Amino acid sequence: TIQGIKNFREFCQQQDPPLFERHDEKWLFMNFGDLYDCSRSILEDMYNMLTEMDAIKKPDPKGFTIEVVERFADLFTRSEEKFKIFEYYGCHYEYSVQKLTQLRESNPRFAQLYRDYHKNEKLLLDIESTLKLPLARFPQYNLLLANLEKSMKYFVETLAARRNVYNDQMKASV
User: Which of 73, 83, 130, 166 is the most buried (most CB within 10 A)?
Assistant: First the structure.
C-alpha cells in the first residue's frame, strides 16, 4: 500500500502534459516517502537490537527485560529527530487530503487517471486511506513506550520489594 503511493506519484510524474503543478504535487504527497523510510529505519533498528540480544527467541514471561527496556529507551532517544517528520506530516495531512479532493473535482484528467490507476493496480487501499497510514503508525510507537514504562515500573517495584526484604533480614539479624 505504501509502495502504491510511491508508484502513483511516479505515475503522475510521467504524464505529459503534467497532471498538476509542482506545488500541488508537493502538498499532495508531502514527505510520505521520508515517513516510510523513517518508519522502516526505526523498525529495522528495533529488529536488529532484539535479534542481537536474542530477545525474540527467549521472551521474558513477565514482559521486557531491564536490558530491553534500556536499549529501547536509548533507541527512541537517538531517534528523536526522526520522529519530527511525523509531527510535520500530521500538521499538514488535512491539507493534503483537501488537495487530493480538489484535484479530483477540478481536473477531469487527473480524476480519470486516479480511477484508472486504482482499478488497474488493484490496490488494497485507495490513495486517501494510504495517506492515513503514517498517522496510525505514530500511536503504535506510543503504545510500545507505554508497555516499556509498565515494564520499568515492574522492575522498580521488584527492586524495592527485594530491598525491603533485605532491610528486614538485616534488622532481624541485629
Answer: 130
The residues, any chain, with a CB within 8 Å of residue 37's CB and separated by 6 or more, are: none
CA distance 29 to 131: 8
Look at residue 106 in the predicted model and tell me its pLDDT. Answer: 92
Distance CA 37, CA 116 (A): 27
The pLDDT, as a whole number, for residue 63 is 59
pLDDT in the model for residue 108? 93
Cα radius of gyration (the chain): 24
List the grid coordinates of 18: 503534467
Cβ neighbors of 28 (< 8 A, separation 6 or more) are 20, 96, 99, 100, 103
CA distance 159 to 152: 10
pTM of the predicted model as reported, rounded to 2 decimal places: 0.63
pLDDT for the residue numbered 174: 64
Instruction: Tell me the C-alpha distance between 7 and 19, whole Å.
Output: 15
Whether the Cβ atoms of residue 82 and residue 38 lie closer than 8 Å to each other:
yes
Q: CA-to-CA distance for 174 and 170, rounded, in angstroms? A: 7
